[in-house]
Amino acid sequence: MVDQLLDGTEESSRKTLEEIKTFFRNMMPEDIYKGAWFEKLLYLALSNYQKKVTAEYFQKEYPGLPPDAIVDLRIALAKKYAAISGGMTSLAYSGAVVATIGKRGGASKVIIPAAITTLVADLGYTSLLQLRLAYDISILYGHPLDYDDPQDLTDLIDLAFGVKAGEALNKSLQQLAPEFIRVFIKKTLTGSSLQALKALPVVGKYLLQNKIIKGAIPGINIPLGVGLNYYNTGQIGKRARTKYRRRAAIDEAVRDFPLEGIQNKCLFLNLIWLAIYSDKKVTRPEAWFLRAFTTRIQEIGSIPDVENFSKQVNFDKEEILNLLANCSIEERQTIFKAICIAVVVDDKPSDTELAFVREVVHRADIAFDENGLNELAKKFG
Fold first, then answer.
1. What is 257-380's CATH number, 1.20.5, 3.30.1330, 1.10.3470, 1.10.3680?
2. What is the pLDDT of residue 114?
3. CA distances, 225 to each of 8, 95, 210 (Å)
4. Contact 282/276 with Cβ under 8 angstroms?
């Protein structure tokens, strides 16, 4: 089935690559060397793509397939496109071309040589593929990226190009606005955030300097052109799948959780928080998990419980654990099930998280199999 879905790939790849070459030919050399090309490419990659590629689009293109299967197919497709691009552009690269790019990414700023146009076209093409692949996977697992949202934008760049590129964007954002917080930036940006977010060229310079000059992306060496494009795109797909599949698994766990068996919703939230924060840190999957539960509790009408919880600063562990004695055995078991999920949504539980779980087991007087936690963690891995 994969082969059938990949038919015609080379022709489509050639057409898109030619469009990218035209994109760079029409660009001022300064835009390439200073990294401004990335801002423009990001807009090109996602502005219309967002409107076309939706959950409904994938249901129509891959009828009857679950998200995991479609994600595998999209990764396979992107890898094949990337490999074709590497093969078509590798022959255009030479030592002379690479030598024209100085240590700071500077070359002759009078014209863009044809070979360099080919080189940056491959960079642009693989960048476009990787951005769209990360976006596809976010859609398939039910959390479409909003590239007008600075946090989502950072996530997208992190997934598509690695942690260092994401850090480059984050660092630049913080330099532009020391008081950087997501809500503030969303309120202060006007018009298209892609035009207003002056940090984006930093990512373009990072990709040009660190991936082309250091040979970390395909095309510098002819034998590496196909293989590295293929490998890098596959790795990006795996990172995105891990992140968004985990989030989808969290949503599913919360959606299917038997909340009707919980009488004391405030105690329930407090215990989940104590479990999550037992190691004195909160990871993003843990935050997603807690947020999903507070949202669901609000939806079923227990708004005061959520409001009280969200205003609370200090949590008395002993007092909270003592309240378990007032719960029925069935309620204690149900609460404990949520605690177990809370400590594994981001990976196997830490020693401090495991210690808290054991303490709850003792206070709630319920049975517990520690090996079961490792099995539970696999659902979110």
1. 1.10.3680
2. 53
3. 21, 14, 17
4. yes
